[in-house]
Design brief:
It is a single chain. The protein is mainly β. It is built from no helices and eleven strands. The strands form two sheets. Strands 2, 4, 5, 6, 9, 10 and 11 form a seven-stranded mixed β-sheet that branches. The chain has a four-stranded antiparallel β-sheet with strand order 1-3-8-7, with no helix packed on it. The chain is globular.
Length: 116
C-alpha cells in the first residue's frame, strides 16, 4: 500500500524558515516514485486547497504559486523516495496544513503555523 508521510511542520515566527519532507513508501517497484510529478498543496482554515509547488519526474522543472515564488523551493531525491519543500521568509498567510501529492496518492498533512 502506497503511503506518503509529511513531516517538518511546526510553529515559527514570521520571517523564519521551515523544511517540509515527504517520504513515500509501498510502491511496487523502486523506480515508480521517480516517474511521478510531485506536488505540495496547502489548505488554510475556511479556504480551498491550493497548489503551492510542483516538480517534474527528473526534478528539472519546477513551478510555484505566485504567493510563494522566491521564498519556497521544491526538490526531490528519487533514490530516497523523498520530496522537500524548503520554506523561507515565512508569512502569517502561509499558515495552513501542507500536503504532498503524487498522482492519486496524498499524505496526511503537516501543520505549519506562522505567528506575526
Amino acid at each position: 500500500q502506497v503511503q506518503l508521510v509529511e513531516s517538518g511542520g511546526g510553529l515559527v515566527q514570521a520571517g523564519g524558515s521551515l523544511r517540509l519532507s515527504c517520504v513515500a513508501s509501498g510502491f511496487l517497484y523502486n523506480w515508480t516514485f521517480g516517474r511521478y510529478v510531485l506536488r505540495w498543496y496547502r489548505q488554510a482554515p475556511g479556504k480551498e486547497r491550493e497548489l503551492v509547488a510542483s516538480i517534474n519526474d527528473s526534478g528539472g522543472i519546477t513551478n510555484y504559486a505566485d504567493s510563494v515564488k522566491g521564498r519556497f523551493t521544491i526538490s526531490r531525491h528519487n533514490a530516497q523516495n523523498t520530496m522537500i519543500l524548503q520554506m523561507s521568509r515565512l508569512k502569517p498567510e502561509d499558515t495552513a496544513v501542507y500536503y504532498c501529492n503524487a498522482d492519486i496518492y496524498w499524505g496526511q498533512g503537516t501543520q505549519v503555523t506562522v505567528s506575526s
